[in-house]
Design brief:
- There is one protein chain.
- This protein is α/β, with parallel strands linked by helices.
- 42% of the residues lie in helices and 13% in strands.
- It is built from nine helices and seven strands.
- It has helices at residues 22-33, 45-57, 72-86, 109-135, 149-152, 158-178, 196-201, 206-214, 224-235; strands spanning 13-17, 37-42, 62-66, 91-94, 140-145, 183-190, 246-249.
- It has a seven-stranded parallel β-sheet, sandwiched between helices.
- The longest helix is centred in the middle third of the chain and has 27 residues, at 109-135.
- It is globular.
Length: 284
């Protein structure tokens, strides 16, 4: 069967945790543009209503669900509400997360536990709830948002690095376990891109932001639209033979610059200076 002429999510229903802000909202915009009905979940209702209003103004079908992914009762309920509203669930995006910079010796134990609870336990809770529904129908796709420090390590992010490493292992494990049920499980590891959350938590000054940028071989931050487009590809039929894989899109950042690398700011075309950014925290 030839590949589709253009990526489409027509007639699909996509549930996005942390879907009211940042990268989650950008993914919702792209999925809606490609024809998907949207279910946005967040533990903060204030994040959902403005996002839903915007998406509906673009002609997209939207359901919002206030849910905390740390609660398996909430994740079961959000899946149930999605199916009651749209009749099915085809795509789950596990985007809800929390991140901030803190040296490990100064990180309170409850903060470590809370991030692991949101990112790792929350991803499992949502994935299992969604998979049970997908197994009862035609299968589906689960997309997890991770980070490159899941395998490189990231000083100051031990809480998030440990949680994301667990999600990466979960991605590969469930991809094999659920393949026979026609469920694909994939992941994306975006590089840094601008957002209010990232600016406040990961590079609170222009000096730190520039230091991050100079560590990226391509010399620029990502654009959220680029990440959302990659997510759409991975959950579409164009990627039907991809499972258990993590797509890294960080401008080569995790590879390191090496001793012969030139200053990325020298002679870089203006397109490489466009704004974009990695969401530091999407409430889930």
């Amino acid at each position: 069967m030839p590949l589709a002429e253009a990526t489409t999510l027509h007639s699909r229903v996509a549930l996005i945790t942390g879907g009211g802000t940042g990268l989650g909202l950008e993914i919702a915009r792209e999925f809606g543009r490609l024809g998907a009905a949207l279910v946005l979940a967040s533990r903060d209702r204030a994040h959902l209503d403005p996002a839903a209003e915007e998406l509906r103004s673009r002609g997209h079908a939207v359901l919002t669900v206030a849910a905390d992914v740390r609660s398996h009762h909430d994740t079961r309920r959000m899946v149930r509400e999605a199916v009651e509203r749209f009749g099915r669930l085809d795509i789950l995006v596990n985007n809800a997360a929390g991140n901030f910079i803190r040296p490990a010796e100064k990180l309170p134990e409850p903060a470590f536990a809370n991030v692991v609870d949101i990112v790792l336990n929350g991803t499992f809770n949502a994935s299992r709830a969604a998979a049970r529904e997908m197994m009862a129908r035609d299968g589906g796709v689960i997309l997890n948002i991770v980070a490159t420090y899941a395998w490189t390590g990231g000083p100051g992010t031990v809480h998030s690095a440990c949680a994301k490493a667990g999600v990466l292992a979960m991605t590969r494990t469930l991809a094999v376990e659920w393949a026979r049920r026609n469920i694909r499980v994939v992941a994306v590891a975006p590089g840094p891109f601008d957002s209010r959350g990232a600016a406040n938590r990961l590079w609170p000054s222009e000096e730190l932001k520039e230091k991050v940028r100079r560590g990226i071989p391509l010399g620029r931050f990502a654009r959220r639209e680029e990440v959302a487009s990659a997510c759409a590809y991975l959950v579409s039929d164009d990627a039907a033979y991809i499972t258990g894989e993590c797509l890294t899109m960080d401008g080569g950042g995790w590879l390191g610059r090496g001793v012969l690398a030139e200053d990325p700011g020298a002679g870089v075309p203006s397109v490489r200076r466009r704004r974009g950014g990695l969401e530091a925290e999407d409430e889930g």
